[in-house]
């Protein structure tokens, strides 16, 4: 397992901005990102300081990554599927596991609620977004995990201590498991049919599919990739209105965990993300030095 002083989850403007500071301060820094930033789809940016002509979001992101690499940051293209703490932080990916003293979460905000009838109705009554928080309540019950990627498999794995009756529902999507997650996924039932709705009385009772229905006590939503809020909630970081609570120094309530960019809420602009990343980088440096 490789060890770093700083792991930054997210290689958007806030994550890369922080890395520019930490690596120049001599801190061994790893940046992990999947390249799925919403900024990738932005055709023209005209309100960012220093560019006479419009620049695309993709070009801006690529330039930032090249800059961080040039200064010595290690950039890993990949998806963090879990973040754990046992005296130090461990970020798990398909490629491997990485340890660090400090973590900056800069992965943007979580995806919206899936557009499936019944999901909103049964939130807290069978529908959950956190296996760590709610898995205990489904001991020996029939549960499902909604999604088709590596994060989905990770969430299924975290349910195993509570129940063995686990089905992955891909909602009509092809499975996209890779690495160890592909071999692990075979132990679960996998249903690739489209999910029509969730039904039940006071609590979730069934999942309705294209041409059938199945009994279901709990459904854990794990579509797409793990978000900042997923990591935060599981570690005990304070979250409010789907945003991580960070102070003026980008510190969270959990020592060693910082947050910057869209995941902290507020004004969603590249300039704001870059600024928060710089503040986080500066304070990460001070935090690590204070521990030596």
Task: Kindly describe this structure.
The relative contact order is 0.19. The mean pLDDT is 91. The protein has helices at 13-24, 57-71, 131-134, 150-159, 179-185, 228-235, 270-291; strands at residues 2-9, 29-33, 74-77, 80-85, 89-93, 97-105, 127-128, 143-146, 166-169, 189-191, 195-200, 204-209, 213-215, 218-221, 239-240, 243-244, 257-259. It has 2 domains: 2-110 and 227-291, FAD/NAD(P)-binding domain, CATH 3.50.50.60; 127-221, FAD/NAD(P)-binding domain. It is built from 7 helices and 17 strands. Helix content is 27%, strand content 26%. With 292 residues, it is of the alpha/beta class. The longest helix has 22 residues, at 270-291. The strands form 4 sheets. Strands 1, 2, 3, 4, 5, 6 and 17 form a 7-stranded mixed β-sheet that branches. Strands 7-14-8-9-10 form a 5-stranded parallel β-sheet, with helices on one face. A 3-stranded antiparallel β-sheet has the order 11-12-13, with no helix packed on it. α1 packs parallel to α2 (57-71).
Quick check: average pLDDT? 91
CATH superfamily caption of the largest domain: FAD/NAD(P)-binding domain
Structural class: alpha/beta
The domain count comes to 2
Total number of helices: 7
The number of strands is 17
- What fraction of the residues are assigned to beta strands by DSSP? 25-35%
Shape: globular
Instruction: Spell out the helices and strands N to C.
Output: EHEHEEEEEHEHEHEEEEEHEEEH
CATH architecture of the largest domain: 3-Layer(bba) Sandwich
- Name the CATH class of the largest domain: Alpha Beta
């Amino acid at each position: 397992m490789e060890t770093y002083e700083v792991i930054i989850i997210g290689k958007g403007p806030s994550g890369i901005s922080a890395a520019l500071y930490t690596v120049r301060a001599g801190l061994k820094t790893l940046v992990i990102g999947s390249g799925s930033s919403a900024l990738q789809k932005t055709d023209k940016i005209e309100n960012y300081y220093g560019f006479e002509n419009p620049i695309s979001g993709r070009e801006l992101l690529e330039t930032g990554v090249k800059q961080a690499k040039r200064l010595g940051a290690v950039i890993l293209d990949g998806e963090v599927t879990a973040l754990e703490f046992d005296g130090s932080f461990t970020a798990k990916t398909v490629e491997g596991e990485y340890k660090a003293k400090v973590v900056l979460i800069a992965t943007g905000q979580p995806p919206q609620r899936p557009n499936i009838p019944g999901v909103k109705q049964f939130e807290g009554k069978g529908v959950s977004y956190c296996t760590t928080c709610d898995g205990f309540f489904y001991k020996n019950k029939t549960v499902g995990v909604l999604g088709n990627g590596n994060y989905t498999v990770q969430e299924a794995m975290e349910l195993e201590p509570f129940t063995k009756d686990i089905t992955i529902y891909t909602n009509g999507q092809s499975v996209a498991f890779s690495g160890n997650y592909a071999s692990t996924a075979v132990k679960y039932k996998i249903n690739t049919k489209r999910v029509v709705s969730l039904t039940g009385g006071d609590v979730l009772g069934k999942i309705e599919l294209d041409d059938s229905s199945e009994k279901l006590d709990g459904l854990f939503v794990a579509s797409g990739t793990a978000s900042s809020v997923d990591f935060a909630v599981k570690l005990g970081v304070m979250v409010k209105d789907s945003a991580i609570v960070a102070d003026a120094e980008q510190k969270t309530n959990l020592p060693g965990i910082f947050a910057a960019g869209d995941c902290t809420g507020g004004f969603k602009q590249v300039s704001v993300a870059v600024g928060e990343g710089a503040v986080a980088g500066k304070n990460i440096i001070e935090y690590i030095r204070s521990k030596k």
